[in-house]
Amino acid sequence: MEKLVTCFYQRPEAVSRLICFPWAGSGSAHYAHWGKLFDSSTEVYSIRLPGRESRSRESFAQNMDQIVMEIISVLLSKLKEKPFAFFGHSFGSFTSFATAVKLKEICGVEPVHLFVSGASAPHSKARDSLQTTLALGDEDFLKWMTTVGGAPAEMLQSREILEMFVPVLKADLRVLDNFVYEKPSGTVLSCDITCFDGTEDVPHDLEAWKELTSGDFNIYSLPGGHLYLKEPANEKTIVNYIAKHLKTTEMTYL
């Protein structure tokens, strides 16, 4: 499990778990630090995908199914132990959703809450093809990323960071671009879904997420662009919101 999951604050006696899925190009460290922001009732797992951090020598995932099946094969026994929720931003919204759907389909297990951020629903027509963008040279590609708020501008100043970051980011975006989700006639999940988004990010079709669950649905906008969740005030708001909802869920299991 240590290969797939980073958990800086292990809490085996926790009542629930929050599983966090990285945005495109990122590793597991950012979300792993969230563990200190929750109390002892919640344990935070941060997913580490192949091709980064301690898995840097591994080949990148080629498709969404490869990501989903690794997560399920490694974490299924843990997910059956106690209530769990998923959080994902941007690319992580899609990987968390795809994992939730496959879990329910093959195991009859689903998160108590799906928290998604900075992404249109997977079946929405608002999703754009990334083929032209992925064909750009590395520097032009990263300049495009800074214009849409997906990468800090200071990355352009470091050749070393550029060479490390771009291949990982492009690999994740290829997976995303090839991920096609055909929504069935009914809802696919029964858990609650909450969408977060930055007010200055490019527009996302958040309402379409409501079509994917029979559970409650909410949308919350916070100030900032695509990486708005890295702002301390926004991070605190998101964590407090998740903690509140997990507390409510935990009470039903005690």
TrEMBL record:
Coiled coil: none annotated. GO terms for molecular function: fatty acyl-[ACP] hydrolase activity. Residues 17-242 form the Thioesterase domain. GO terms for biological process: medium-chain fatty acid biosynthetic process. InterPro entries: AB_hydrolase_fold, TEII, Thioesterase. Its EC number is 3.1.2.14. It holds the Pfam family Thioesterase. It is an enzyme of class 3 (hydrolase). Keywords: Fatty acid biosynthesis, Fatty acid metabolism, Hydrolase, Lipid biosynthesis, Lipid metabolism. It catalyses: (9Z)-octadecenoyl-[ACP] + H2O = (9Z)-octadecenoate + holo-[ACP] + H(+). Belongs to the thioesterase family. This is S-acyl fatty acid synthase thioesterase, medium chain. It comes from Microcaecilia unicolor. The gene is LOC115460090.
